Amino acid sequence: MADERRTGYDGTGPGAITPDGCAVEMYGRLLPNGEPEVIGSAVPAGASILELGCGAGRMTHPLLDLGFRVTAVDESAEMLARVHGARTVRSTIERLDLDERFDVVLLASFLVHAGDPAVRRGLLDTCRRHVAADGCVLLQREGEDWQRDVPRERPLPPDGLVRVASATPVGDGVASVHVEYEFPDARWTQTFLSRPLDTAQFEGALAEAGLAVESYLTEDRIWVRARPVAG
Question: What Å distances lie between residue 52 and 3, 29, 140, 198, CA to CA?
Answer without folding.
Answer: 19, 19, 12, 23
